[in-house]
Write a structure and sequence with these properties.
Elements lengths: L21 H10 L10 H4 L1 H18 L1 H27 L6 E15 L2 E15 L23 H30 L1 E2 L14 E4 L4 H5 L6 E5 L2 E2 L3 H8 L6 E8 L2 E8 L1 E6 L5 E6 L2 E3 L4 E2 L3 H26 L2 H12 L1 H13 L2 H13 L21 H10 L2 H18 L8 H18 L12 H24 L4
Antiparallel strand pairs: 1-2, 3-12, 4-11, 5-6, 5-7, 7-8, 9-10
Helix pairs in contact: 3-4, 4-5, 4-12, 4-13, 5-8, 5-13, 5-14, 8-13
Length: 481
């Protein structure tokens, strides 16, 4: 059972048919609304104007950056499926669902089908399903009490609460299967210690030491100054102590080993977007990890294995982030966001000094990893905001985007199961507590007093708000990449 706050929950016998109050009257007025019922109501009168504005913004985004629109639509689909999970399980359990809305804020459009109002609101940053009686504080019309969340069985309540995360996990499994079978993934892609790809040349930049020495695409580098280089990481570590020097490099081409002198230093190249990039080494771009695909049957095994690996990594990441050191690190990143961004710009503008610093660092510390590339963003412990996710997702290839959304879905699925309100896991924790009390006290139904949890819930909401604002600020001022 999830940990409950020190102030133990107290039983409250919820009336079978609560008396009407402000909340009841509000619920009744909402249930009587529907698109087209009152054409003069502000939510209806300006609904089409808001809809046109939203579609216009999405069209402009699609024209400007098609992949950004794809990411936005994928996020909206992910959120919709989360709420659809709650909706379907609530309907299956016989609960009344009064609203199913995408977005927050002013209403754009809605339509009533049966007892449920479906619609879209202006801010596409979430969604919600309204099920009466989620806690004992909710006031519900007497005729609807039997169909509230709180009056259903333990199994029904838990299934509704976990349905959103279950949809995320299911979507992640589907994406991982598609990636493994149809798209391809590097070996050990989701391992906590993935293997470095072999030291194979992908591109030789004109005017570099490698270009002058005659290296070409497809060459596999065996040694640098006699040091074996079986992987790209080994090549970087073997090269770092020799920046500014000319050393013998052995590579294999067409099965023949060739040794040539190569000058290692700082070389500048013009990137496709016109920017100048300076790097240390031979002046080559290494081939990335080779993608591998598996058969449809093997994919049924591989996808769950990868799901388990990502699940474990995500749990460790959440624990690390919310630890005292993780929170302190995140706060430091927020506080120094401007300085870190300027430092990254200076490092990119003058990488020749970095080459010398790396060589000096390796001379002092020849241990593995000392030659690793250092950047202001390496090793940062941070959470992406929706804005950051859109920006980052817009910068990767579509193949990587599939894997990225598998990761995001697993992370959100876990995060929603935190056993505190207002998370879905908070409702699971309450249901488990009530079920234990029912068995202990031999009662047919036991209602927990949620008022004792309100201070803690308000605290969680404040923390979530601070996390949202700070992560958004960090993604705007000092974005990843």
């Amino acid at each position: 059972m999830p940990d409950l706050p020190p102030t133990d929950l107290t039983a409250v016998e919820a009336p079978e048919r609560p008396q009407g109050g402000v909340a009841t009257r509000l619920a009744t007025s909402v249930s009587s609304e529907g698109y087209g019922v009152d054409p003069e109501a502000p939510g209806v009168r300006y609904g089409w104007l808001r809809l046109v504005a939203l579609l216009g913004v999405l069209a402009l985004v699609g024209f400007w950056k098609p992949q950004m629109l794809l990411v936005i639509l994928a996020i909206m689909l992910m959120i919709t499926l989360h709420e659809l999970g709650h909706y379907l399980m609530a309907k299956r359990a016989g609960m009344k669902v009064t609203e199913f809305f995408l977005g927050f804020g002013p209403k754009i459009w809605s339509v009533r089908r049966g007892e449920t109002e479906y619609g879209i609101k202006v801010i596409p940053a979430g969604a919600y399903v309204k099920i009466p009686g989620m806690v004992n504080l909710d006031e519900v019309a007497p005729e609807d009490e039997a169909r509230t969340y709180r009056q259903k069985s333990f199994g029904s309540r838990v299934s509704v609460a976990v349905a959103g995360s279950a949809m995320h996990f299911l979507l992640a499994l589907i994406l991982l299967y598609v990636s493994a079978v149809f798209i391809g993934q590097p070996a050990d892609a989701f391992s906590t210690d993935p293997a470095s790809p072999p030291a194979i040349v992908q591109k030789v930049h004109a005017g570099s030491g490698a270009d002058e020495a005659g290296l070409a695409k497809g060459d596999r580098i065996r040694t640098v100054d006699g040091t074996p280089t079986p992987t790209s990481e080994a090549l970087r570590e073997a090269s770092a102590p020799h920046y500014g020097e000319t050393v013998p490099v052995t590579f294999v081409r067409d099965g023949q080993a060739v040794t040539v002198p190569v000058t290692l230093g700082a070389y500048s190249f013009t990137q496709p977007d016109g920017s100048i990039f300076t790097t240390c080494g031979m002046g080559i771009t290494m081939a990335g990890p080779q993608k591998e695909t598996v058969g449809p049957i093997e994919g049924l095994v591989k996808a769950p294995q990868q799901f388990g690996q990502i699940f474990t990594i995500s749990m460790k990441g959440l624990g690390s982030f919310f630890s005292p050191s993780g929170i302190s690190s995140f706060g430091s990143q927020v506080g120094s966001a401007h300085e870190d961004r300027e430092q990254a710009k200076e490092t990119k503008a003058d990488n020749s000094e970095t080459c010398a610093e790396k060589a000096a660092a390796i001379a002092k510390d020849p241990s593995p990893g000392a030659a690793s590339s250092s950047g202001s963003g390496s090793g940062e412990n941070r959470i992406l905001s929706i804005y950051g996710l859109v920006q980052f997702g817009s910068s990767v290839d579509v193949v990587s985007l599939v894997t990225l959304f598998a990761l995001i879905n697993i992370f959100i699925g876990i995060f929603n199961l935190v056993p505190l309100l207002p998370f879905d896991g908070g409702h699971v924790a309450i249901a488990v507590y009530e079920n234990i009390q029912e068995k202990r006290l031999h009662r047919r139904r036991y209602f927990a007093d949620v008022t004792r949890l309100l201070p803690l819930t308000y605290g969680v909401v404040v923390v979530l708000g601070l996390l949202f604002v700070s992560s958004l600020y960090l993604d705007v001022v000092n974005p990843i990449g």
